[in-house]
Fold each of these.
Amino acid sequence: MRPDFIPGHISDADIRPLLIAGAHGTLGRAFGRICLTRGLAAVELGRADLDIADPASVAAALEEHRPWAVVNAAGYVRVDDAETDAERCFRENATGPEVLAQACAAHGLPLLTFSSDLVFDGEQEHPYTESSVPNPLNVYGRSKLAGERAVLAAHPAALVVRTSAFFSSWDEYNFVHFALQAGRAGYPFEAADDVRMAPTYVPDLVNTALDLLLDEAHGLWHLACQDSCTWAELARAAARRAGLAEDFVVPRPMADFGLPARRPRQSVLASEKGMVQPSIEDALGRML
Ligand SMILES: NC(=O)c1ccc[n+]([C@@H]2O[C@H](COP(=O)([O-])OP(=O)(O)OC[C@H]3O[C@@H](n4cnc5c(N)ncnc54)[C@H](OP(=O)(O)O)[C@@H]3O)[C@@H](O)[C@H]2O)c1
């Protein structure tokens, strides 16, 4: 008798996976990695296998993989390019999540999707919570807000996580990595010192978002480090942790960068739902 042939034994073929859309991006790869370490079966699909804005592609993926839940890690995140690429930005950030939400609602599947601190205008003096009123200043923020609203209208049981400014050691496309690269090479690194936000440590984000999904949480949730900083303060904190002198960080007003998209002067996320993430220093301590 085969050793796995035990009456009542659940074979791998019976385990319904978590379906990760946008699996080749920063967040998608982090979900794949953490599912592996947590022993959660996952199907990781990039754009070539699943286009979230194409209803036929979504229907085919759900039919083929029969997931127990869907994580949407796909999106258009180039905030400045979005100012002149609104159609594509809205396709990936609003239409795509809506198509996924409609399909998940029709199949009775939980959906986890992500939004941004840039749905806020920065005029509020204190941190933004889930019930704060959004008022985006740029195309990207408007597309994320449209996505949130479309998802929750189509699938009220969906989980929509607002988060901000990713950092981790798992890829090189983040501010902390660029700052440390400059510091280690002995180059000056200019960073805004008049814009305040709560950056997000990607491993903590993914673990907490998965916990919320497994707990069947729904609606809007804010997940970011529990404290806040300016971009220049983040670069200096990372430099200290990495054992570098901080003076390569050159503080500048955000306006000096001449970026096409307007940014809120503060977009600090806090939660009124009691969800507290570790601090920036704690995250940097584990990262560096
Ligand atoms: N990065 C941050 O600091 C940050 C902050 C707040 C919120 N978020 C949110 O977090 C999510 C993930 O961001 P990220 O930084 O991981 O982005 P990312 O690294 O750019 O990855 C996004 C992935 O989505 C894919 N994609 C785009 N449109 C798609 C579609 N229609 N169907 C399937 N895949 C598609 C992209 O593929 P292609 O390369 O082929 O386009 C890319 O692989 C987004 O919702 C973003 O708004 C990010």
Amino acid sequence: MRSRPKIQDRKETLEAKKRRVRNIIKILDQAYPDTTLALQFSTPLELLIALILAAQCTDELVNTVTAKLFKKYRTPQKWARIDRDTLEQEIRPITFFRNKTKSIQACCLELINRFDSNVPESLEDLLTLPGVGRKTANILRGNAFSQAAIGVDRHVGRLSQLMGLTKETNPDKIEFDLNPLVPEDRKVRFCHLLQRHGRSICLARKPQCTGCPVKKLCPYAEKAPFTEPKGKIK
Ligand code: SF4
């Protein structure tokens, strides 16, 4: 009896890849039924600030710092008017706290001057804000405005590579590869699931393929432990 070709040996059609993605989502959904975005927020402004703070920093640390700040500063005006030294001290445990202080205040000034003190919902408008790239804009659109959007953070990018959904290393190009593969109404969920899976089993230092619930759908499991991921997410 001929054995089924391995995923890595097959020329996978777009339809087959879409089916594989739907099955990966289904299995991870069962594995992590309650998972959601790790950053805590209750308004689009809070999520915008949390995302600026989260660059190259852990979500846990950001949540600890923002828990106090979000009670004190609730509007773009409050954030923009805090004395810069004071804000720097308040976010000091966070990496690059000086640059992030500048970004938060510049962003809030733009919100006041150009968007009537609201966080805009469209990708085009969000991308005009200082320090906001596609990842931040899409995470905001998906999580604060319930839009179908894929925000490629380090987990989403790395796991998509391992799962053979993209060969790209640039997050914007990874997003373009993923968009046609993930159903519209599952895009945000797909990101939450990959983020959670990347923290629990598909670890950056060594994916735990043996115990992974999607190993039959993942070409990396067939190659592991001999091959490293193709490239770092830039
Ligand atoms: S099989 Fe391995 S590489 Fe693939 S998703 Fe699971 S842990 Fe990650």
